[in-house]
């Protein structure tokens, strides 16, 4: 028997969690799921697992990674799970690292395939996505996270049963928790959900230069992203950053403007179905991953595309 951490938002399991459930199926055996906190019971109704365990506790309104770790460890222990699988989100990875410390077991992060057996044979994404590693996991209880957007998500569906429980949480489990949230500007499309992402890199030249990137994103109903060179320059907030140390996104099309295409950047855009590069340099590394390219100055190309879109829409 194995257990999967299922994160939820707006009453439904997240896509990354459905990807984790899909990969966990390769372990064989019955799959249980754990959902945590307010809204968990509603989300559980569409989690396709044999049993969904819903952790309910007054203190779970805000994300607390040690509390999540405690819940994962106690649930795994209670049901005798041989593996604990989690989505590759920041929160789940944080909680799983803490669970690994509690259990004294290794954590295998960013898995993309599993061959059951003893030891488990895993394929993991390493080095910002530039390398696939085959690893053998020797552990009493396997702790795995699933690389974002590398595995097709399982369809949402009805669970066999849903069981609510109140986890036993100590004060120390709640010392680290989210105390405040800064909401993005209202009305925008989030990078995580956007079907179109228009990203600007150092080639944009300045914070003010992003006007042309924002305009195109707006016309396409998309979100604005940026590279780390941009966040390091203070032109955009880190919440806009795409890459190994930023957001991992999966839009239908990724329009990368003035971005060289460093492996650490592309690590965040690997889930994109198509990449369009706009760059003055035909030899830029991004050309090796781009499906389409426009060789030119983004400050000429983007306004021209935006003007044409506006003209066609009358
Ligand atoms: C541990 C680690 C983690 C990292 N994590 C990330 C991460 O999460 N995300 C990330 O992005 N980077 C990350 N980096 C940094 C990464 O290695 C690169 O330095 C960074 O992505 C470069 O950003 P850039 O492409 O915007 O800038 P540059 O590499 O300077 O590229 C600028 C590009 O713009 C083009 N250009 C210039 N002017 C124009 C113009 N007018 N029109 C069109 N094109 C133009 C140039 O030809 C060039 O290709 C990380 C690095 C490390 C070591």
Short description:
This protein has 314 residues and is α/β, with parallel strands linked by helices. Helix content is 25%, strand content 26%.
Uncertain spans, ≥5 residues at pLDDT below 50?
none
Write down the overall geometry. elongated
| Gap between N and C termini | 59 Å
The major sheet is characterized as: 9 strands, mixed
Quaternary structure: single chain
Proportion of beta-strand residues: 25-35%
User: What structural class should be given to the helix and strand makeup?
Assistant: alpha/beta
Radius of gyration: 21 Å
Mind explaining what this structure looks like?
The structure is a single chain. The chain is α/β, with parallel strands linked by helices and 314 residues long. The protein is built from eight helices and 16 strands. Helix content is 25%, strand content 26%. The chain has a nine-stranded mixed β-sheet with strand order 9-8-7-10-6-1-4-5-11, sandwiched between helices. The chain has a five-stranded parallel β-sheet with strand order 13-12-14-15-16. Strands 2-3 form a two-stranded antiparallel ribbon. Helix 5 links the parallel strand 12 and strand 13. Helix 3 packs across helix 4 and helix 5 packs parallel to helix 8. It is elongated and about 60 Å long. Bound molecules: flavin-adenine dinucleotide (FAD). Flavin-adenine dinucleotide binds next to helix 6, helix 7, strand 15 and helix 8.
Primary descriptors:
314 residues, alpha/beta, 9-stranded mixed sheet, 5-stranded parallel sheet, 8 helices, binds flavin-adenine dinucleotide
Please describe the topology of this protein:
Blueprint (H helix, E strand, L loop, with lengths): L1 E4 L2 E2 L2 E2 L1 H10 L6 E6 L3 H5 L6 E5 L9 H15 L3 E5 L2 H14 L3 E9 L4 E7 L4 E7 L4 E5 L14 E5 L30 E5 L10 H9 L3 E4 L1 H5 L20 E5 L5 H4 L7 E6 L12 E4 L2 H15 L2
Parallel strand pairs: 1-4, 1-6, 4-5, 5-11, 6-10, 7-10, 12-13, 12-14, 14-15, 15-16
Antiparallel strand pairs: 2-3, 7-8, 8-9
Helix pairs in contact: 3-4, 5-8
Flavin-adenine dinucleotide (FAD) binds next to α6, α7, β15 and α8.
């Amino acid at each position: 028997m194995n257990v999967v951490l299922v994160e939820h938002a707006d009453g439904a399991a997240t896509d990354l969690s459905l990807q984790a459930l899909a990969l966990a199926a390769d372990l064989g055996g019955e799959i249980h799921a754990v959902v945590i906190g307010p809204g968990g019971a509603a989300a559980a109704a569409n989690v396709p697992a044999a049993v969904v365990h819903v952790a309910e506790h007054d203190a779970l309104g805000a994300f607390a990674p040690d509390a999540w770790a405690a819940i994962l460890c106690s649930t795994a222990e209670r049901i005798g799970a041989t593996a604990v699988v989690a989505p590759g989100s920041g929160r789940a990875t944080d909680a799983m690292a803490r669970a690994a410390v509690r259990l004294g077991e290794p954590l295998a992060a960013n898995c993309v395939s599993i061959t059951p057996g003893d030891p488990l044979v895993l394929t993991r994404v390493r080095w910002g996505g530039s390398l696939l590693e085959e690893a053998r996991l020797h552990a009493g209880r396997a702790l795995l996270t699933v690389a974002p957007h590398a595995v097709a998500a399982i369809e949402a569906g009805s669970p066999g049963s849903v069981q609510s429980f109140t986890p036993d949480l100590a004060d120390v489990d709640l010392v680290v928790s989210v105390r405040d949230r800064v909401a993005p500007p209202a009305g925008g499309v989030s990078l995580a959900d956007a079907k179109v992402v228009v990203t600007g890199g150092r080639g944009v030249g300045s914070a003010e230069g992003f006007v042309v990137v924002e305009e195109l994103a707006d016309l396409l109903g998309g979100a604005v992203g940026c590279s780390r060179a941009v966040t390091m320059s203070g032109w955009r907030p880190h919440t806009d950053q795409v890459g190994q140390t930023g957001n991992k996104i999966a839009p239908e099309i990724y329009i990368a403007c003035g971005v060289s295409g460093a492996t650490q950047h592309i690590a965040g855009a690997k889930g994109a179905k198509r990449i369009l590069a706009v760059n003055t340099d035909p030899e830029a590394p991004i050309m090796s991953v781009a499906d389409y390219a426009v060789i030119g100055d983004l400050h000429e190309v983007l306004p021209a595309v935006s003007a044409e879109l506006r003209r066609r829409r009358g």
